[in-house]
Write a structure and sequence with these properties.
The protein is α/β, with parallel strands linked by helices and 186 residues long. The protein has a single domain (2-160), classed as 3-Layer(aba) Sandwich (Rossmann fold), CATH 3.40.50.620. It has 7 helices and 5 strands; from the N terminus they run βαβαβααβαβαα. α1 runs parallel beside α2 (39-56) and α4 runs parallel beside α5. The protein is globular.
């Protein structure tokens, strides 16, 4: 069964691909992530994805389009709700590509992360699938997260430090700074 697999990055794909294959799917990797900021971070993750897919000899498309302004326009009014838009925009793009290229099934490597909202991803994917006449394949891949990360490190793939957007970058480093300062203002 052919599966269009939205990939957020190489490291998440490392642990996800074998799990989809074990379920009988033949993944086609699809990188589309306007949520990754800044551009150099987007480029590093895109290249990491390409490197993995070429090493594995799997078919893929790494979309170069980077609609940063549209992403910011959509999330800036309510940054606390950005993940819903982020899931929706990427899964919609994946579903449209799947529909236009003969795929009946689609999914995402976001499902490997213990830090993502699985319920929201699943609901979003299933809603889009119903509207497009496709099937969203939900697999709880979280059990392969740590092993996938270890394999990605061993392969020398670029390992990101935050989810992707400028808001998640701020949260990640702001928490670290607060932990170091132990409550002191800076």
């Amino acid at each position: 069964m052919k599966l269009l697999l939205h990939c957020c990055c190489g490291p998440c794909a490392v642990g996800s691909l074998p799990q989809f294959e074990e379920h009988g799917y033949q993944p086609f990797g699809y990188f589309y992530n306007p949520n990754i900021h800044p551009y150099q971070e987007h480029k590093a993750r895109r290249l990491s994805f390409i490197e993995l897919m070429e090493r594995r000899g799997l078919p893929y498309l790494a979309v170069k389009d980077y609609p940063l302004e549209e992403w910011l326009r959509q999330v800036a009014p309510a940054p606390e709700q950005r993940c819903a838009y982020c899931y929706q925009s990427r899964l919609l793009a994946a579903a449209e590509f799947a529909l236009n290229n003969g795929f009946e099934h689609f999914s995402t490597t976001l499902l490997i992360s213990p830090y993502q909202n699985h319920q929201l991803i699943r609901e979003t994917g299933e809603k889009i699938a119903a509207a497009k006449g496709l099937e969203f394949v939900y697999l709880d891949l979280r059990g392969g997260f740590r092993q996938g990360q270890e394999e990605a490190r061993a392969m020398g793939l670029y390992m990101q430090k935050y989810c992707g957007c400028i808001y998640s970058e701020k949260e990640r480093y702001q928490k670290k700074k607060k932990a170091i300062s132990k409550g002191a203002d800076s």
